[in-house]
Amino acid sequence: MNNKGFTLIELVVVIVILGILAVTAAPRFLNLQENARKSSLQGLKGAMEGAAGITYGKAAVENQERSSAAVDVAGIETRWGFPTASSAGIEAAVTGLDSNDWVLSHEGQSNDDTAYTVVTFYDADKEGDTSAITDTGCYVRYDQAQGTEINQVASATVFDDNC
């Protein structure tokens, strides 16, 4: 008799091998979401820094880069030539920051009275609540410029300890 097919032992061996592969490969796939969040925050930081640099260049062309008062440069509110930490400043400068992908707060003030914006992934419960955003441990902070010295210009910082 000429039977074609797999024996029970062959099928069990294949299932065991697939199980071993699944156990070793699953942790790598589960970590992809964390890496994607961290990469998105790095991309947002780059977009903020790029927008701030372009805005500063435009302010310099218009001879507005030394003004400590709020100045409109190409529809973007600036201080010291960089976008302010407000909806009229950095949010207007970065394309897509006002979309449903991100949740922002412009209310933060640090100890030295420096205005800042914090941004994280969209969650309606955190809208405008700085402490709720920072409590996530997965956000970008934009500090507006305090002057024209190298340690006073606008900066963006990624916090990704808990993504």
From TrEMBL:
Pfam families: N_methyl
Transmembrane segments: 6-30
Statement: the UniProt record of this protein carries the keyword Ribonucleoprotein: no
Alphabetical keyword list: Membrane, Transmembrane, Transmembrane helix
Protein's name in the database: Prepilin-type N-terminal cleavage/methylation domain-containing protein
Record keyword Zinc-finger present: no
Taxonomy, superkingdom: Bacteria
